[in-house]
Specification:
With about 375 residues, the chain is an alpha/beta fold. The chain has 15 helices and twelve strands. The chain has helices at about 10-15, 15-25, 55-75, 80-85, 110-120, 135, 155-175, 180-195, 195-205, 205-215, 230-245, 280-295, 305-310, 330, 335-345; strands at about 30, 35, 50-55, 75-80, 95-100, 125-130, 140-145, 220-225, 250-255, 270-275, 300-305, 315-320. A five-stranded parallel β-sheet has the order 4-3-5-6-7, with helices on both faces. Strands 9-8-10-11-12 form a five-stranded parallel β-sheet, sandwiched between helices. A two-stranded antiparallel sheet has the order 1-2. A hairpin with a 4-residue loop joins strand 1 and strand 2 (about 35). The longest helix is centred in the middle third of the chain and has 20 residues, at about 155-175. The radius of gyration is 20 Å and the shape is globular. It binds 5-amino-5-deoxy-1-O-phosphono-D-mannitol. Catalyzes the first step in hexosamine metabolism, converting fructose-6P into glucosamine-6P using glutamine as a nitrogen source. This is Glutamine--fructose-6-phosphate aminotransferase [isomerizing]. Its main location: cytoplasm.
Amino acid sequence: SKGNHRHYMLKEIYEQPVVVAQTLRSYMRRIDDQVSLPIPDFDLSAIRRVTIVACGTSFYAGMVAKYWFEQFARIPVDIDVASEFRYREPVLEPGGLALFISQSGETADTLAALRHARAEGQKIAVVVNVPTSTMAREADLLLPTHAGPEIGVASTKAFTCQLAVLAALAANLARAKGRLSPEEEKKVVRHLAEAPAALNAALAYDEAIESMAGVIAGARDVLYLGRGPDYPLALEGALKLKEISYIHAEGYAAGEMKHGPIALIDDAVPVIVIAPSGPLFEKTVSNMQEVQARGGKVVLISDYDGIAAAGDGCLATITMPKVHPLIAPLVYAVPVQLLAYHVAVAKGTDVDQPRNLAKSVTVE
Ligand code: M6R
C-alpha cells in the first residue's frame, strides 16, 4: 500500500534510507570494515574488462559504475544501452565480465544482450531487484538489490540500491586487483555506511524542493548539468522530468554545454546544476557561470559550502548534506527525484502511471 503517501513514487523515494541500508548490509561486513560479495568464492582477479549493459535509469546507474570501476580498480569499462549492444557487434574477449543492471530482471533488450554476451563467452553478472526474475536465474554472479517491490513506473529506490551494490562491487574489484589497501577499504566501507543517514538528511529538504517546483512546472524546456560521476545524475534528472511531468528536459555533461546547447540559453529555460563539493566543483561552477552570463536562470543543487561559494545569482538553490564524493550520486538522486515528483504533482499528471509507459518493457 501507499501508506501515508499520496503516490507510490513518493513512498518509494522515502524508503531509500532503509532499503539502501538493507542492500548495503549484504555487501559489507561492519565487523572488520570489509566489502564482500554474496558469492564469496567468485574470482574477480582474472577480470580484464567489464561490459555494462542496461536501459533507462538502470543504464544511468551503470554510467556511474563505469567511473567507479575505472577509478578504483583501473579496469577498462565499456557501456551500452541494451538496444544498441548487439548491433554494434561488440568485441568480447576472454576474461570479460558482462554486467547487466535491471530492476525488473525482465527487460527484453537487456535479456537479449545478456544471452548474446553468454554466447560470446563472457561471465555474466546481474544486478537485479526481482530475485525470481529471468535475469536472476541466468546469472553466474547474482548481485541482488534489496529495494523491495517497486510499483511506481518511475524508478527511484531501485536506482539508489543499484548504486549501493555497484559501489561495493567497485571496491571488491579494486581489492581483487590489488588496488585497495585494507586501510583504504575501511574508508570505503565507512563512506558507504554513511549513505543511509545522508539520504535521510536529503529527504529533509522535501518541502523546500516542493516550494520551488513551480519554477520548473511553468517551463517548456529544462537543462540538467553535472560532471564526472554526477553527470549520469543529470541524465537521470532529465529522464525523471520527461517521464512523469512531460516537460522536455536534457541532461548534459557540464563542460559540453559550450559545444552547442548553450545556444538554447535564455531566461525561459531553467538550468539545474548538480555540483556537490569535491574535486570537480570549481569546473562545474565555471560552466554554471557561462550559463548565467547569457541570462540563464540556474537552480543550483549543492551542499552548504557549495551554495555559500556559488549560490549568489541563482534563481533557486537546493541544499544537500555535505558528503564524500563516493556517495554523492546516491544522495543527489533524492532532490532530482523529488523535484520531478513535485513538478508532476503541480502539473496534475498521473505520477505513478505516466502515459505511454509500462513498468517493465518486455518487447525489443
Ligand atoms: O527493469 P529495468 O531496470 O530493466 O528497466 C529499465 C528501464 O525501462 C527503466 O529504468 C525506465 O527507464 C524507468 N521507467 C525509469 O524511471
